[in-house]
Amino acid sequence: MRNLVISGGSSGIGKATASLFAERGWRVFELSRHGKDSQQDDVQHTKGEIIHIPCDVCDEESTRTAVAEVLKMTDNLDVVISNAGFGISGPIEFTEIKEAEHQMDVNFMGAVRFTQAVLPQLRRQQSGRIIYTSSVAGQLPVPYQAFYSASKAAINAMALALANEVRPFHISVSVMMPGDVSTGFTDARRKSSVGEEVYPTARKAIANMERDERSGMAPEQIAQLFYHIATCHSPRPQYVGGFGYRVLCFLDHFVPTRIVNWIEYKLYS
Predict the structure, then answer these.
(1) What is the fold of 3-267?
(2) pLDDT digits (tens, 9 = 90+) for 90-123
(3) Least trusted range by pLDDT, from 35-39, 127-131, 151-155
(4) How far apart are CA 77 and CA 232, in angstroms?
(5) In Å, how far are 28, 52, 82, 135, 162 from 68, measured between CA atoms?
(6) What would the DSSP string read from start to end of 110-123?
(7) Bridge-partner residues for 81, per DSSP?
(8) What whole-number distance in Å separates Cα of residue 52 and Cα of residue 122?
């Protein structure tokens, strides 16, 4: 039985991914703060299984302890998916520093802690795949969601650097950048209305963004892409979830940045 370790697999994209892998015969180690499914416990899968383990990626000891628990049950990690994350929104000028720091701590430093915890085993076994959940916003930053965009851009940069560091150990590294996905992520976003009198487009921009998310792709579509990255012969460094978003990211390589950024301004003003 092949093994998947996924952080943030109790809801949304992570839950859909954990379920898909289990249904296809994988043993899934799901690491999250509550150490359980967000809606139901002890889900039975006909071929594989999901094992929930408590883990707070903001805490180094918690993260290492969780991975140690996994390694008590298996000595091989086939695929590791770093998926834990959340979002905040609001104007940069009025975002509290502690909120911006927490955004980076969960989304980026959480991925760093998780990576550092699993790499010793991946190096020992001289194999494995690491996949990060990033976002189209990491390549095309969204106004009033600057710190979320920055956290995902940081993941993109780290993943490319890491890929070359671990290449001699036969470990592959990929990022998956979804576009809008309909999950509980939208309602869980920490929204700040401070400064909206100075930035009157903020409220409309955030409302438009959330409307697009709620009408976005099903998380199961992204789970299918995760499964492809995990099982294909030679995974690419970056993937984009959703055809329209793939077109946008492709055009971003050829259209001047000034024009791309102006288009985003028009979309969110």
Answers:
(1) Rossmann fold (3.40.50)
(2) 999 999 999 999 999 999 999 999 999 999 999 9
(3) 35-39
(4) 16
(5) 15, 13, 16, 29, 22
(6) HHHHHHHHHHHHHH
(7) 6, 131
(8) 21
Q: Which of 11, 134, 151, 174 is catalytic?
A: 134
Instruction: Catalogue the E-assigned strands of the chain.
Output: 3-7, 27-32, 49-54, 79-82, 88-89, 129-133, 172-178, 190-191, 238-241
pTM over 0.70: yes
Torsion, CA 73, CA 173, CA 84, CA 48, rounded to 10: -40
CA separation, residue 56 to residues 3, 30, 189, 242 (Å): 21, 12, 18, 30
Domain boundaries, the chain: 3-267
Torsion over CA of 99, 133, 239 and 11, rounded to 10 degrees? -120
Strand partners, 240: 177
Which is the catalytic residue, given 11, 32, 89, 152? 152
Report how far Cα 239 is from the mean position of its chain's Cα atoms: 12
Active site residue 152: yes
Per the annotation, the verdict on 134 as an active-site residue is yes
Tokens of 229: 């990255």
Per annotation, catalytic residue among 148, 151, 174, 245: 148
> Could you tell me which of 102, 100, 72 has the C-alpha nearest to residue 5?
72
Answer whether 116's CB lies under 8 Å from 57's CB. Answer: no
Q: Tell me if residue 15 is catalytic.
A: no
Query: Known catalytic residue: 215?
Result: no
